[in-house]
Amino acid sequence: MNTRKTEYRFVCALVACCVPALSPSTAGQGSDARALFSEHCATCHGETGDGAGVTELDRPARSFKDGGFSFGNTPEALFRTLTNGIPGTPMPAFDSAIDADGRRALAAYVIELGPGLPPPPKNTVMVVGDRPRIVRGHLPPIAEGASAHPRGLLIGTTTGMTFEYRVDDVRLLGVRQGGFVDRRDWVGRGGAPLQPLGTVVYLFDGGNPGATFVIPGVPTIEGDLPPGDRGSLEAVLEGSWVRGDEAGLRYRLVDPDGTRIGRVEESARAVGTSVGAGFMRRFRFEGDAEATVRVRLCDTFPPEARVASFQSSVPAEASAAGRALGPTLWTIVRREERLFECIGIHNAMPTNEDTTLGGGMGTLLVPFTPGGSATAGVTILLTTEWSDAVRSAMLREVYGR
Fold first, then answer.
1. Strands 260-273 and 373-383: what pairing?
2. pLDDT (tens digit, 9 = 90+) per residue, 202-233?
3. Could you name the CATH architecture of 3-113?
4. Segments of 274-372 assigned E as strands
5. With pLDDT > 90 as the criterion, what percentage of the chain qualifies?
6. In the chain, at which end, N or C, are there fewer CB atoms within 10 A of the end residue's CB?
């Protein structure tokens, strides 16, 4: 059995639509929902929504007549799925292909094809509205073979994505899509684990990730570090925050001797394109000591997994819009058959020192200096194919150009 394939658990699509044209037409305001369904969905899901479309897919298309979608069958959930797509599946984001009114009308039409709306959620279920929500508590294992975490944290975003962390030593465990959380610790005597409701669409190291921050030249803490990295930093949670439609964490980095290296503020959000869906993590680093830190931003891949690598510049207006953080080094790797991971590591010029792109596949080298600061980030998109056309569409839609 392919261990990496087993660890990297992608779920079947809520809707397994074929990828739309790379130069999509924009739907006008008030577009007829039936016509939108016929144009964008019927080839995969069938004209009646029964899943019997004419497009050949690597998995059965969802039958809307059955209802009970993996990512929710409320109008809000379907609108979010149409807007952002589903990572690791043929379901793309339709944000640039169909306007917001058209997506709302299409979501309502899809519900009409099925058995109807689900019953109201239990009073213990937390729902994310127009602002992100953050919950702390005991997290059960995110996947088979993973560990439970008595100190866990969930960030639920307005796009329907949930970012799941352990926070005894801050590490992102995985990303979910769908509902937010059932807080069963609210009932009885309390103490029951949180029950995340979304389906896992991205999993780090099988749900047991190693340290995110590594510094050379200190005693070894973990034995599975890349060559040249001889010790890890502890990420000590200081707090969480919500600002408008963004949410994230603050934590400090401490070496094994107890020396405080610096502070990190991290946020995460969904990213959707017509050729694949995924997410972006942003980091702001503030230094307290002199050190060069290796930041691990994705799983470790063997060199033969690399399909392509290139660097792209970002227009100033794109960075100002918050779509990216600066010049980006992209690495495309093949995860398994018909699945590619596009890893874009981007950075802006820090206050005092340059942040070095690269440092190894999927890693970033950050020089910390007392009083210095830097910003950087990573975008991870999952696509079912890779070509020059996919590359062009990805860059155009991620950067807004």
1. unpaired
2. 999 899 999 999 886 544 444 444 444 457 89
3. Orthogonal Bundle (1.10)
4. 276-287, 291-296, 306-312, 328-336, 339-348, 363-368
5. 30
6. N
Maximum Cα–Cα distance for the chain, whole Å?
Answer: 64
Q: In what order do the strands lie in the sheet with 181-182?
A: 125-126, 181-182, 195-196
Nearest-angstrom CA–CA distance, 163 and 144: 18
Q: Write out the two tokens for 395.
A: 């860059």
Question: Would you kindly state where each structural domain of the chain is located, as residue ranges?
Answer: 3-113, 121-209, 210-399
Q: Shortest CA distance to 59 belongs to which of 45, 42, 77, 47?
A: 45
Task: Give the phi and the psi of residue 269 in degrees, each rounded to 5.
Answer: -155, 165
- The whole-model pTM stands at 0.73
> Which uninterrupted H or E stretch holds 398?
helix 388-399
CA distance 135 to 146: 20
Q: Please give the Cα distance from 133 to 249 (Å, whole number).
A: 12
Give the count of beta carbons closer than 10 Å to the beta carbon of residue 338: 13
Q: For residues 173 and 210, what is the distance between their CA atoms, to the nearest angstrom? A: 10
187: tokens are 């009932």
Q: What CA–CA distance (Å, rounded) separates 374 from 286? A: 7
